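Form 12-C: Joint structure prediction
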Amino acid sequence: MELKGTVWKFGDDVDTDAIIPARYLNTSDPKELAGYCMEDADPAFPARVRPGDIIAAGKNFGCGSSREHAPIAIKAAGVSCVIAGSFARIFYRNAFNIGLPIFESPEAAADVELGDEVSVDVNTGTITNLSKGKTYRANPVPPFMQQIIAAGGLISYIAERMKRQCTK
Amino acid sequence: MQNGVNQMPMTITEKILAAHAGKERVVPGELVSVRVDLVLGNDITAPVAIKEFNKIGVKDVFDRERIALVADHFVPNRDIKSAEQVKTVKEFSRKHGLPHFFDVGQMGIEHCLLPEQGLVGPGDLVIGADSHTCTYGALGAFSTGVGSTDLAATMATGETWLKVPETIKFEFEGTLKPWVGGKDLILYAIGAIGVDGALYKAMEFTGAAIAGLSLDGRFSMCNMAVEAGGKNGIIAPDEITAAYVEGRCRRPYQFYRSDPDAVYEKVYHFDVALIEPQVAFPHLPENTRPVSEAGNVAIDQVVIGSCTNGRMEDLRIAAGVLQGRKVHKNVRLIVFPGTREIYLQALKEGLIETFVTAGGAVSTPTCGPCLGGHMGILAGGERAVATTNRNFKGRMGHPESEVYLSNPAVAAASAVMGRIAGPEEVV
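Section 2 - Result
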C-alpha cells in the first residue's frame, strides 16, 4: 500500500495539547475533534488540511497526555500518516491501536519541508520525497505491531482472541 | 531478594515485569504479555474506552475489583458535554457492578486518590489511561500510562503487552537545601536530560536524598517521569513505604529491589546540595532555572495542587509560607487539594483557613486548571506559576498565556510577591 500527500511541517516536541487542546476533550466525536486538530500549533490547519495530507515533525511527536483523542483527531482530519524523528511512547502505542499509520525516520523528518509531495510505501517503510527526488528509510515496525495492524487495530485483535478462547 | 547463581541480575522494573509475565526473568527489549493488578480510566479517557470495550463483544469485565474509574478532569461537571461523559462512565460502572467508580463527593485526583485508598501497592503492575499513571512508582510499583483502546482491551482481558524498558538510574546524593523537595529534584533531572531524555525508558530514582524523601515527595518525582519521556518512574520501597501501605493496601503487596549488579543503560549522579528550588519556564518542562535566576517575571495567577503537588505535605508547605500574609493584589491564588481526605485534613489543620484568609480560593479536588479544562483558565498574555506538571503552549488556557512550573513553596511565595519569587524572600 502506498500513501501519498502534501506535507505540513512542524517542529520538535509537538505535544498533545497542540494536537488537540484539552478544552475540546468534552467530546470524543472524531469529526468534531478533527475541527480543532493542531489548532494551537497552526490555527489554519483544521480548515486547510486536505484528505491524504501528511504531517512531518521533529523528535518526540505526541509528548504529553495519554489522550487517544490526539491520533483520532489527526486521522479524522484526513491526514494519511505522520512522519517524525521520534514519537512519544503513549502516542506511538495509541496510533497503532486506532490505525493511524506513523513512521519514525529522523532522516525524512530533517529533510522534508512544508508543501513537499511525499509518498510512503507502507510495506517497506520507504519514504519518497517527490518534490526533491529523494528517498528516506523509516525504522522497521516491530513484528507484534504488524500483527495488530494486520488484524485491523487492537480491538479486532483482542476480539478475535477472545472469540477463539470462548470456542475452545 | 535472593539472587541465585544461575539468575541474571535484574532491576526492580524488570523483576515486577517478570513476575507479572510468569517468567523467571526478562531482558530489556523483550515483549511480554503481563497480568495487570489494576487498570485506571478517567472521565476523558474512559468514555472512548467504553465505546471500544463494547465492540469486543465480551459480556463482563475481567475483574470488577481491579478496575478504577475516576471522574476528575472536568468535574464538577463543566458543561453538558462533560456531564454526558461522566454519565457514560457512571452507567458503565453500574452495569458492570464496578465498586471503584468515584464521582464528586468521594472522588479525588486519580493519582492522589488510588494510593490513598489502598488500591495500588508495592510490586503491583498498573496501567492507566492517563499519562501520569507513572506516579505509583513511588510505592515500588510498575505503573505506566496508555490510551483508551489499551484500557478497553485490558478491561476485557486483564492483560496487556509491554516492551521491557532499559533502565536509567538517577542517584541523588547529599543533603537537600531548605525549600527543596521532590518536585525540584525531578524538574532538575528533566532540565538535565530533556523532555525526551528518558524516552521509552524506566527511570529509577535512588540515593540518600531519595531515602530521606517523604512519600508525598516521591509521588511528585515519579509523577513527572513521563515529562522526560519515561515509561515509568520507580523508587525501591523502604520503611517509609511500609509505614504508608500497612493497613492501607487492600491487596497483598510485595517489595522488590534492584540487584546490586543490575544492568543500567545509563547512570546519572546528582549532588542535591547544589540544587536550588527550580522553575520550569514556558513552554517545556525542560526549561528549568534555579528560582534565584528567574528574573523579574510578573504573574497573574498561582495554582497550587494537582496530581503532582496536591498532597498534605504540599499544602502544609504552601500554608506555612502564606500564614499571616496576603496574596498580591494582582494575583489570583487557586488551591485545589488532591482528594476529599486531604481536603478534610487540611480543614482540621487550619490550612484552608490560612489560604482563604490570605486571599486565595480553595477548590474541590479536580484536574480542571492544570490542563486548561476549567476552574482557573488563563487569558491571552496572562502568566501563572503552578505546582502542576506541564507548561506546554496553551496548557492552562489561551495559546498566548504562560505557565511556570515550581514547587508549592515557590508558588506560595510568588502569590505573595506578585512575581516569581523564592520562599526566602517572603518567610
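Section 3 - Comments
Chain B has two domains: 12-269, 278-425. The first strand of chain B starts at residue 31 and ends at 35.
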